Amino acid sequence: MEKKLKVGVIGGTGYVGQRFIALLEDHPWFKCTAVAASPRSAGKRYEDAVDGRWKIDVPMPSYVKDMIVYGTDEIEKLCEAVDFVFCAVDMKKEEIKALEERIARLETPVVSNNSAHRWTPDVPVIIPELNSDHSAIIYAQRKRLGTKRGFITAKPNCSIQSYVPALSPLLEFGIEKISVCTYQAISGAGKTFADWPEMSGNVIPYIGGEEEKSEKEPLKIWGTLGPDSIITAKVPVISAQCYRVAVQEGHTAAVSVSFTKKPSREEILDRWASFEGAAQKLDLPSAPKPFLQYLEQDNRPQPLLDAGFQHGMGVSIGRLREDSIFDYKFTCLSHNTLRGAAGGAVLMAELLTRQGYLESK
Q1: 309 and 347, same structural domain?
Q2: CB of 4 within 8 A of CB of 330?
Q3: Which pLDDT score, from 0 to 100, does residue 311 have?
Q4: Annotated active-site residue in 158, 242, 332, 335
Q5: Positions in the chain short of pLDDT 70
């Protein structure tokens, strides 16, 4: 691009906000020009606002250290300084919904990491490789909001991005039922072992709201465009269990699946090996090539070895075998704060830019 788009990061002091800030350093299309956080951080230098709380595994970029943090109660000022925003705030759901709609009505597009608007009918929930066409619903959303350029898009739940990409190339075989158990890293809760020591050597068999998201959000991604909403798919039926495990980065999923037309093992491996989506075809800057990899070793994928595949933007699959109840079972893995959170949102923003929805004010 001749001129980089100016980006704001709302919730920039949190774990995912820090990922956004790191990913935007030297991005070829985007430049972070503003950061917002809770009012208690407002007016501080960014480095001071996160003093002792920089959690991710790369150094704080120098460009952001002296940036003065806006409060979330200063959104009008922030919107004047940017072309669009990434939103990753830690607030109550209704507060997030109101904040994001307010920003959109200020004619500033929102690319959200939050769950608040994922079930708003005219808000697309996009994985760029899978449902890039859903962005067309933005026209209907703008009509509802009364905006010319403002809108909201949402990134899906981090855990479903480990296994939905592996299932999507198999939809042609008529997926009927899915049973999935996710083993989710503590960074998904914005934590490290330093501030959550009781997770060391531990498993917690419950993550609030996660199972419902895991069972329903894939159906919106696999849905179709209606005139003023995304029409959610009716099948397959999904049953999910979600566990928090003693891993820093990387969500693992154990998947079992039944088909109306059972494919051969070779057909499944072929679909995974050849799969590419709009992100790859449009040659987006953050697009992994390849998106999916299949690992033949019986003990792979593993978070320590494979979460970083394609700079954390690819999905690893392994242990494909027939199942005694379902047709097949296999294991998936993705990096939850890169592909599953900030990286997936940056890739979505790249898609929206290429499609013409994001541009300079």
Answers
A1: no
A2: no
A3: 98
A4: 158
A5: 1
